[in-house]
DNA sequence: ACCATTTAGTTAGCCGGCTAACTAAAAGCT
DNA sequence: AGCTTTTAGTTAGCCGGCTAACTAAATGGT
């Protein structure tokens, strides 16, 4: 018996951490009527409003159909607005509404709270190390998916 | 302009790493006809065949309806078999088929390969540190969801 | 013995993801 | 100009997740 060898792998633990973290963030975001994943769209728009749909997909690292559906829902919630791109009739640009802008503070707070839970009991040193390692690992994954 | 502050947070980076990692594993598993997530069910069964549905849900940290649907699909693929539990008429037990058992090697290989990509260019020391930190973080997340 | 309560799974329906196949507009080539 | 190719988004449909509401069997209290 004993546990399966795969369970001891770093990748396996990472997958479990991800799942838990996503659930954690999702729980906090739900209080603001958001589903986990949608906040990523908002972050990009808070950073630069008026992006085109395709640009959003690239920045989120997501396929176009995902953006189509998410925007439909975010628009339905009145957080976002789609306006045609004057310079390209196939395209559109996404703008935050007042409600969408108003979520910046609360959602940022959710991220901060969830991060405090994530790193609870860890010192500055470990936190920095963890962050650095995550950034390196992210670079690995990005470059390997780009190489395809 | 500059990037939004949320993007600099450890939790944000973690979310991105997760997404990329999941995609990475998913790509490898697809070669064996599996969707990412399904392999978790198989891991539990390789470890202890004949689990009840509810027990599977607990081990995967997933809600019962998720198990219902996944098992229906895995059964449809012929990887798994559901037999009634003789001691409880509401319950059933899940058993691997020969095909399900045959996937153990290949799927383990997928995890190993994806882990090599994940940790590429990192030394033993960093790998160990990263693993330890992930385990601690996982403990944090588990305990906070259990406290609810 | 009986009824209320808890427990095990299912169904329906939503959301974030994906791929495949499509439409329509823009860009390029001749 | 006219035709081909590329690009931008959409639709349909699948999968892993979730919640809410339900069925049916086991358990517990009296």
Written description of the protein model:
2 copies of one chain form a homodimer. In chain A, strand 2 and strand 3 form a beta hairpin. Chain A is globular. The first copy, chain A, has 7 helices and 3 strands; from the N terminus they run H-H-E-H-H-E-E-H-H-H. Chain A has a 3-stranded antiparallel sheet with strand order 1-3-2. The model of chain A has no long low-confidence stretch (mean pLDDT 94). In chain A, helix 1 runs antiparallel to helix 6 and helix 3 (53-60) packs across helix 4. Chain A is 64% helix and 11% strand. In chain A, 33% of the residues are buried. Chain A has 148 residues and is mainly α. Chains A and B meet through helix 1, helix 2, helix 6 and helix 7 of A and helix 1, helix 2, helix 6 and helix 7 of B. Chain A binds a DNA duplex (30 and 30 nucleotides) through helix 1, helix 3, helix 4 and strand 3.
